[in-house]
Amino acid sequence: MDKFDQHIIQILKADARCSVSEIAKQVNLSRSAVTARIRKLEEDRVITGYHAQVSLSQESPAQICAYLALKFDTSSSGIHDCTTYANSLSLIDGIQWCHGISGETDLMLYVQVANMGRLKEIIDTIYTYPHLRQLVTHTVIHEFFHHTTEK
Length: 151
Hints:
Layout (H helix, E strand, L loop, with lengths): L2 H12 L5 H8 L3 H13 L20 E9 L1 H4 L4 H8 L5 E6 L6 E7 L2 H12 L4 E8 L12
Helix pairs in contact: 2-3
């Protein structure tokens, strides 16, 4: 590797999208010479890839989405009021919505958090609720589409 190769590498490290024409101007070589040198550097595995650097402030935080199905034991409490549970759940950061639904499930929650640790914290909090009989977690693996309705 000579000084031209080192200069080409410096330019590409600073800007992987820099054109061959621009590199040729900066290193004072022809475009064909720069192209040949880059190809040789790639073949020799000196250059192993080209990458985009993203500012951390521009990255969106990772999102974990899950549905939590909650069932409560009504026989031991004598009184079963999902409104009380829903009001309490509304105070937990990360729970986006809570629906009372038909069937054996009493409440269906949609949770959106930054990481699995936060999801576990929410689940652990819900497990402290009195008369909770069952909590089933359905983690979203892939979203195919998401329609929003305008009201």
